[in-house]
Amino acid sequence: MFHDVSIVFVFYTSLAIVSAQKLLVVVAEGLAGGQYHKFSHLPGFRTFQTSGVWSTLLYPEFPTLPIPNRQTLMTGLVPHVHGFIGEQIYNQETGDIFLAFHSKKDYDKDIWWKYEPIYVTAQKAAAPSALFFFPECGVRWQPSLSICVAPDDYGLDDVNNVKRIIEATRTHDLIMVNHVNIRQQIERIGVQNMRYSKSQQIEKFTQALERLQSQIRERIDLNMIVVSPHGYVDVPEQNIRIFDHFVPMEMINITIGAGALKQIIPFPGKTHQSHLRHVSPIPNVKIYYTAKNIGDMPPWYFYRKSDIVPDLVIIATPGYAIYTEDERKQIPRPSETIRHTGLSGYNNEYPDMLGLFLAFGPLFRSGMRKGPANLVDIYELMCSILRLDCPPSFGNLTNIDDVFVEDALPTMKTMLIEDDAHSVPSTHIYICFPVFLLLRIQYLFL
Hints:
Layout: H1 2-18, E1 22-28, H2 43-51, E2 53-59, H3 66-75, H4 79-82, E3 88-90, E4 97-99, H5 109-112, H6 118-124, E5 129-132, E6 147-149, H7 159-171, E7 174-179, H8 181-189, H9 200-218, E8 222-228, E9 233-234, E10 240-242, E11 252-256, E12 261-266, H10 271-274, E13 285-289, E14 312-316, E15 321-323, E16 330-331, E17 342-343, E18 355-360, E19 368-369, E20 373-374, H11 375-385, E21 417-419, E22 422-424, H12 435-443
Parallel strand pairs: 1-7, 1-8, 2-19, 2-20, 5-6, 5-7, 10-15, 11-16
Antiparallel strand pairs: 2-18, 3-4, 8-18, 9-17, 11-12, 12-14, 13-14, 21-22
Helix pairs in contact: 2-9, 3-11
């Protein structure tokens, strides 16, 4: 009889809990979809293949750089809209400069942070959010987060950090973790020299994943997704191009960025002299004109002239890089620029630039290989799991809702919420209690 009562108790308790699902999001930069086969056999990753969802075809947004794509994940907007169009940004109208969180003004909400990220949306909706190791913790949003841990040198490599994250999952609905150690190693040594199966960074990361997965198995309310927004390619020394060697610097006012792409601001009257539509003066590097209607940038880049995008942008062929040596005409200064072996930032449809999406938890299917997915759709996925009335985005939940178990398939429902005469579209997920979850919990009472 106790056995029957326990089942009923668990059933009703679970019905009350399952409607409020928690989400742990791990942003692990550097794990390219094209390299997944090299480490997918490791225990922490193997779980996603046998008991979760995985996709090696996650399409980032251009430019395929960490900060722009992290903000796309957070807002569901493309870089041209949310404003982070590079690791460094120069506003031609105001003179403001963004230096990849190396300047105090980088955290000024009035200058750079026009669109609220999902963790602020969640906090406003009374869904407590916690951030770990994001430089964005320095931005003063309201309401503020109760947990916002600044970046450290260890991230998920530190067992104590993992314990803090697990504790946060008990009191917060959205927990986001930024892990950069794998990306930093790839930047230093390159993709080809990264021995994934024997890498200390990969080993520590898989151990952290196993601890987090163990928590998910014990609970009915916790789900985890791992997102690596984009990949990297190697750039050998002989493939580096110096901008100063090919273009007369007396025509150039300033250049912004380095590596895969660079913005060029010529002096007045020198723009067309710097731009050659059919022949580039720099081998393996193309100069694009960004002006509306007459520009020649690929349309899927969503990268056109604005106060933060100048008339000219140069993009290197994958495997090549472009740098400026003139200290007076480069942001950031060449003396402060590290020339990495592994680079990102190239065409977002180039195979080596595709990222990785992994999911595990009571809401997700088991053993599903997901086809192509878009980074902007992950934003809608997060909003749905947390049942948030998120602002409009470029994402589409129907592109990715097949990752849910059948008993938890999301239903798209648009609600017009009147708020100061403004209508806000809302995406909700309605969850029926899955039988397999009940059986799993019942097992605990046997």
